[in-house]
TrEMBL record:
Listed GO biological process terms: DNA integration
Domain called Integrase catalytic: residue spans: 60-230
Superkingdom field: Bacteria
Record InterPro entries: HTH-like_dom, Integrase_cat-core, RNaseH-like_sf, RNaseH_sf, Transpos_IS3, Transposase_IS3/IS150/IS904
An example molecular function term from Gene Ontology annotations: nucleic acid binding
Listed name of the protein: Integrase catalytic domain-containing protein
Length: 233
């Protein structure tokens, strides 16, 4: 699963057939069925729509994607969230985060041992204590299409946008965040348990928001851009 995760970050177009072939080239004896099962467990799917993309939960309302060709000009214009697999030395956990698209500021994050909707709702409610976005974007996963999650947004009259099926790049800003988190913090270290992982992520997001300068932000930090933008609205 660690190998699959690293490869997927570099090649999000890989579905389970190509991932299996690549693992076999690296002398891993795996079947297509096993790799498909592991990728489902990790919540991974190829970015190209196809017959193996994940399906939203039956009966959940799906909202249209509203952000194609939209210019992101201000803080709190668009927020988004996602879930990613986080490997540990003896197991794994899932990380959910909420990010502001203009500033790249991570408003909140939560860890969970399961991919249920509760920790995603916790992350959302924590983020909303810092402001209110005009549009909130997610994928079509069951966690985000659940009435518990969408209800929080609708109660605050926030417009909901959802990625097209299989299109991870519709949520490109948080995909870049996952790449940074994993290659700068998770992969260089080996966390033995949830407590040490939580401590490591706490220090990383503190650094990411307050010290890590972004070229796309004119060499400013996310917190600088977010606070400046929030004050001007």
């Amino acid at each position: 699963m660690r190998l699959i995760d690293e490869r997927y970050l570099l090649h999000p177009e890989y579905g389970y057939p190509r991932m299996t072939d690549w693992l076999r080239e690296k002398e891993n004896e795996v079947s297509y069925k096993r790799v498909a099962r592991l990728m489902r467990t990790m919540g991974l799917q190829a970015i190209t729509p196809g017959p193996h993309t994940s399906k939203p939960a039956s009966g959940h309302k799906i909202y249209p994607y509203l952000l194609r060709n939209v210019e992101i000009e201000r803080v709190n214009q668009v927020w988004s969230t996602d879930i990613t697999y986080i490997p540990r030395r003896n197991g794994y956990m899932y990380l959910a985060a909420v990010i502001d698209w203009r500033s790249r500021y991570v408003l909140s994050w939560e860890l969970s041992s399961t991919m249920d909707s509760l920790f995603c709702i916790d992350a959302l409610e924590c983020a909303l204590r810092q402001g209110t976005p005009e549009i909130f974007n997610t994928d079509q996963g069951a966690q985000f299409t659940s009435s518990g999650f969408t209800g929080v947004l609708l109660d605050k009259e926030i417009t909901i946008s959802m990625d097209g099926r299989g299109r991870a790049l519709d949520n490109v800003f948080i995909e870049r965040l996952w790449w940074s988190v994993k290659y700068e913090k998770i992969y260089p270290q080996s966390y033995s348990d949830g407590h040490s992982l939580h401590q490591g992520l706490s220090s990383y997001f503190e650094y990411y928001n307050n010290e890590r300068k972004h070229s796309a932000l004119d060499k400013r930090t996310p917190v600088e851009v977010f606070k400046e933008g929030a004050l001007s609205t």
